[in-house]
Structures are given as structure tokens and as C-alpha cells.
Write a structure and sequence with these properties.
Blueprint: H1 11-24, H2 28-43, H3 62-74
Length: 83
């Protein structure tokens, strides 16, 4: 699903974007989206969690174990061990 947003950009940079989009045949939206994807791919240090779910279980430790796994996957310090 696409969502609309508004960005503010230096006039010179916007002119460069217009020229590039016209030359390449891409829309400005496509150029900006590719640039953001590339930037985030190179600079976003937040790890993707492979799986995280909410549910109920008769096994009481599952939610505590799940929190430890999520912390470990996110690279955070482990919390205190459950009593």
C-alpha cells in the first residue's frame, strides 16, 4: 500500500531530481523511493526480528522466553532471569 507524503527539498536538489527523472524515464516518486531504500539499506542498524507473535499458552515461561529471544535478536542486554 502506498501512502502520500510531502517533503521539503532545496531548490537545486529538486531541479537535479527533475532532470534525472526526465532523463531516466522514472517518476520522481520512484527515484526518491529508490534513494530512501538505498540509504536505509546502508544505514539502518535496527535488526529485523525474524518472528514475533502474541498468544496464550499453558506453559508459563513462554512469554518470558519470548522476551529474552526478542531482546537477544534486537541486540539488547538480557533482562533479569525469571524467578
Amino acid at each position: 500500500m502506498q501512502k502520500r507524503t510531502t517533503i521539503l527539498m532545496d531548490a537545486d536538489l529538486l531541479e537535479r531530481l527533475d532532470r534525472y527523472a526526465a532523463r531516466s524515464g522514472w517518476t520522481k516518486t520512484a527515484v526518491i523511493a529508490a534513494a530512501v531504500e538505498g540509504y536505509l539499506g546502508a544505514n539502518d542498524t535496527t535488526p529485523d526480528l525474524p518472528f514475533l507473535a502474541v498468544g496464550r499458552s499453558d506453559h508459563g515461561r513462554l512469554s518470558l522466553d519470548g522476551r529474552q529471544i526478542a531482546r537477544r535478536e534486537a541486540g539488547q542486554r538480557p533482562g533479569p532471569e525469571p524467578q
